[in-house]
Design brief:
22% strand, Gyrase A, domain 2, 4-stranded antiparallel beta sheet, 2 domains, 194 residues, 4 strands, alpha+beta
Length: 194
């Protein structure tokens, strides 16, 4: 019978298996290391790209913020100009109002029987002071004011007897308050007359 010694063969086979396993382990470690390096490189490039994108976006944002500030300043200036134009237009429309009011009052005064000594306006309220020869003249003047389309809510504040000058002539001093009539009230009075 032939005898074969299998022990060295097994040892050689065992060494070969161990060598293959170590080689496989090293190869898998190298592949894993290469995958980590490639992923790291890819992510580093992506982070770099995102940083440049963020920087360019910040520059654009700064540019647009500057433009927004300029627009806000222009809007503020336009608002101020609009207010000035509105004030000018308001003054322009009211420019003839005091003249028309005085002209209307001149037509309403009872001639040679009364005189206005003071005329003050504040907003829509008008304060009239004057003197008249008697109570009836003051009543006639108030009636004329009420019938007029320019005045509303005519009220007599005070009526008292005063001495005029050195002659000792006794006159009736009066204070009348009234309001400027609104456009709607003026139209209603015109309709009532017609």
């Amino acid at each position: 019978m032939i005898r074969i010694n299998l022990i060295p063969f097994r040892q050689v086979r065992k060494k070969e298996n161990t060598r293959q396993q170590v080689s496989l382990y090293l190869l898998s470690f190298i592949v894993l290391f290469l995958i980590v390096v490639v992923c790291n490189f890819y992510l580093a490039n992506r982070v770099k790209g995102l940083k440049t994108k963020v920087d360019t976006t910040r520059l654009e944002l700064a540019k647009y913020q500057k433009i927004n500030k300029e627009i806000a300043a222009i809007k503020k200036k336009l608002s101020v100009l609009d207010k000035k134009v509105n004030v000018i237009m308001s003054l322009e429309t009211r420019r003839g109002e005091p003249v028309n009011l005085m002209d209307s009052l001149t037509g309403l005064v009872v001639e040679k029987r009364m005189w206005l000594t003071s005329f003050k306006t504040k907003g829509t309220t008008i304060n009239l002071k004057g003197v008249a020869l008697d109570n009836q003249t003051v009543a006639d003047f108030m009636l004329r004011l009420q019938v007029s389309t320019l005045f509303s809510s005519v009220n007599l504040n005070t009526l008292k007897q005063e001495k005029a000058g050195t002659s000792g002539l006794k006159l009736m001093g009066f204070v009348i308050n009234c309001d400027k009539a609104s456009v709607a009230a003026k139209q209603k009075k015109r309709v009532k007359k017609g």
